[in-house]
Amino acid sequence: MTSTLPAGNRISGPRLAAFLGSWRRPDGRGAAVDLAAALRVLFLDGRLPVGTRLPAERELAEALGVSRTMVTAAMDGLREAGMVASRRGAGSWISVPGKEPDRTGWSLHPPSEIVDMAHASPFAPPELAAAVDRARLRLPELLNSHGYQSFGLPEPRELIARRYTERGLPTTPDQVMITNGSQHALTLALRLHVGPGQRVLVDNPTYPTAVDGIRAAHALPVAVPLDPDGWDLDSVEATLRQAAPRLAYFVVDFQNPTGLRMSAPDRERLAHALRRARTLTLVDETLVELDLEGDPLDGPPPLSAFAEDWVIATGSASKAYWGGLRMGWLRAPTELVHRLGEARASMDLGSPVFEQLVLAALLAEGDDILAPRRREFARRRDMLIDLLAEICPEWTVRRPSGGLNLWCDLGKPLSTQLAMAVGRRGVQVAPGSRFAAHGGLERWMRLPYTLPDDQLGEAVRRIGSAWHGLADPAPPGHGIA
Description:
By secondary structure, the protein is α/β, with parallel strands linked by helices. The protein has helices at 13-20, 31-44, 57-64, 68-80, 127-138, 154-166, 182-193, 208-216, 233-243, 264-277, 334-344, 353-365, 367-391, 415-423, 453-469, and strands at residues 84-87, 91-94, 115-117, 176-179, 199-204, 220-227, 230-231, 247-250, 280-284, 311-316, 328-331, 396-397, 405-409, 427-431, 444-448. The longest helix has 25 residues, at 367-391. It starts with 12 loop residues before the first helix and ends in a 12-residue tail after the last helix.
């Protein structure tokens, strides 16, 4: 167990209470066990990274409205499990059992039996191995160079520029930079444009790793709630005027986690508001190629088409192809790309050359790879919806037209409790609060449809068993939206 006090930010009692959400069973039984289990969920989904300094037990007890004795009992259990370390005079902090954290859940189940429903990440397509072989044959021609590519190899940049042009946004290769995933692009934008204490506008709910990146840059996420049917642009415009954020972050194509897609008229209105407020915006287009009900080229134009000088568009191979490739890109005006390249120099000297060759081989295949992949995801989406309608008919589930997950309304604020109960059954899920910028969203849970059929079916059966074992479940009658 880690015994040395590591560096890390301290989380206050009220903020930790907000993260915990609805952690306690309605009948009040086993409160210390429930609190420890809820804290485990926060450890596992990354909201409390290793090294995070915890509030004093008295402070946390006051924030939760419970006795200090109960908090002490929960912390003692976590200390025994090696998840919390303490030292007199230094307080307590998040630790790790053994040498490496067991990201499958510190569960009673062995890793081989864990069903991962927390990550909306597909397995690699069978064509990936052939792309690796083609890249291997191309590699010798680059071995006589120094290998540093600050902006990326010409070939993948040209292919990405061509795709943006096909989508209605004329683009040249010098407007494209290859990155190590879309999160890397966000980190570059934050480093270039946002200082400590400055605001970044985000949706609520939103992609949680983006919020983590904003906080890691010591910036402040300012959340605008999403309506069930889409973006509240009146609220977005008011927040742009009143909060004056330095940066905005949006996912307008199959938004993660809701699956919503912004219409072309709304994109034009949003772009006008961004130009008027002079707010640089990063638009995450990682899911844009996963249109499950149409051709991606027939979708709305990129947001950049309406406010090119104020938008950095980012993409990634992680959702369409495979997360293990760790390749992404950004698209922006040429001058801004060069400024981002200058900001990058202190982080790394470019993306790996071999992986760029693999990315180029995949991109060159285009819809030969992606079209059957989209059909398979659409089939699994419908399978997951049917399973939930049968096993959890109390839930309301919207059928997304793209992306990789369902955003499920449980009807009751039991998401964290359900995540805890499901974890005890060997399924790892992300509660709705994981996608909230400032806590809440306890009525919601994200469930991806990226697993094979047998794992998907088994996961839903275990989720249903856990759900029906909770006290006071939601009333029936919601169904599929």
